[in-house]
Amino acid sequence: MSPMTHHLAFGVDIGGSGIKGAPVDLKSGKFAADRVRIPTPSPSTPDAVGAVVAELVGRFDLPDDAPIGVAFPAPMDHGTVRFIANLDQSWTGVSLTDVVHRTTGHQVTAVNDADAAGIGEHRYGAAKGKDGTVLVVTLGTGIGSALIVDGVLVPNTELGHLEIDGFDAESRAADSARDREGLSFEAWAQRLQRYFETVEMLLSPDLIVVGGGVSKKHAQFLPLLHLRAKIIPAELRNAAGIVGAAAMADLEAAKGHQRKH
Predict the structure, then answer these.
(1) Is the residue at 255 inside a domain?
(2) Which residue segment(s) compose the domain that 199 sits in?
(3) Burial of residue 253, with CB atoms counted within 10 A of its CB: 0-12 exposed, 13-18 middle, 19 or more buried
(4) How confident is the model over 31-40, as pLDDT tens digits?
């Protein structure tokens, strides 16, 4: 089977507390088997995390040529970790693609976790088939962002770290801030309004998709926002990182195949 006819890729989502993975049916964007989660090792060094990813992959009967996509909580520079907040500091400057290729033997694509979620939503979820500028924002411990223009990802946007009114935006508008300060959805929506109107002024998106666990409660805050762009809840929720990483791996495999021919 040539990389152009992949119907399956494996997606991995590496987080501070858990490493999750599943094979993904690339036609539907659905898991081809139940997702498996293994706690993130401590310390979460490259060797330790690489071993866990290999264990995850080993639990599935994966074709040898199935590519692996890895969503990772850091800005990525062509597969290399630029700097790291949520995992062991020894990741800085390490090639994640090399680490996982070494432990699994598969072709590997590494992508920032917010970018992976964005690609998942654009290919299979709330933004499926949408042209123009699509912004996917995950509201959680921080604010993750993915910017997709006419189907092409602009990687490593860190729009949660915009300085707005003298504050790092995510310190006031992330879901963790709502939780920490005991804000009502109405009070939090005022902060979200300020955040999204700033982003909208800078980027003029055609569509904004809001993900993260709190997006389940979208009816309590999205209707309170007044923006030019349409703003809608994400659809893939927790699956977005795994599905998006698998989709990116498939895309890279296809590109590699084209370069060889």
Answers:
(1) no
(2) 126-235
(3) buried
(4) 999 999 999 9
Cα distance between residue 173 and residue 170, in whole Å: 5
Sign of the Cα torsion 173, 175, 181, 187 reads positive
CA distances from 150 to 88, 119, 133, 207 (A): 36, 12, 6, 12
> Is the residue at 174 inside a domain?
yes
Instruction: List the beta bridge partners of residue 167.
Output: 164
Per-residue pLDDT reduced to its tens digit, 61-118: 999 999 999 999 999 999 999 999 889 999 999 999 999 999 999 999 999 999 999 9
CA 136 to chain centre: 9
**Residue 128 backbone phi and psi in degrees, to 5:** -55, 130
The DSSP 8-state label assigned to residue 105 in this structure reads -
Assign residue 78 a region (left: φ > 0; alpha: ψ between -120 and 50; beta: otherwise).
left
**Could you tell me the pTM of the whole model?**
0.93
Tally of residues, the chain: 261
Rounded to whole angstroms, how far apart are CA atoms 115 and 184?
29
